[in-house]
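Incident review: delayed structure delivery

Summary: a single-chain prediction request sat in the queue longer than the usual turnaround. Root cause was a stuck worker, restarted by the on-call engineer. No data loss occurred. The affected request and its eventual output are reproduced below so the record is complete for anyone auditing the incident later.

Affected input:
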Amino acid sequence: MRYLIRPLKEQDIPAIIEGETKAFGRSLGFDLIYSDLHLNPYAHYLVLEINKKVNGYIGLWITPDGADVINFYVDKEYQGRGFGKKLLKFAIDLCTMSKVKQISLEVRENNEVAIALYEKMGFKFSHKRERYYSDNTDALVMIKELEV
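Output delivered after worker restart:
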């Protein structure tokens, strides 16, 4: 099984939308991803390609003040195999090279698998955003401090 982590290309957007919808029940949508890709200098989207097929991605906004994970998923069939960890580590390394001091993200409070991964990668709980998601689920904000 061959995998590759690479920058998102415009032709990847439909596969990303499909994957987000399967993972979360909804997507950031074509317009947001397209405009970020072409117009937002702070946006960085990394695709996980396995056997030449898009099977996940992570979206980041990296500014001089810090980085925010916008969205992150790995297709269910490849979860538990270390691909999420590899993709997140790649994103953390990009943030380190960009000399940002911290990365933040939101995660559903009931997503124990994701929370465990984030904690393993050095993210710590910061605070809760009540009824953050469209289904009124709370979000945990997690932050990783980086050495600059």
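Verification: The beta strands are 3-7, 43-50, 53-63, 66-74, 102-108, 124-129, 139-145.
Action items: add queue-age alerting; document worker restart procedure.
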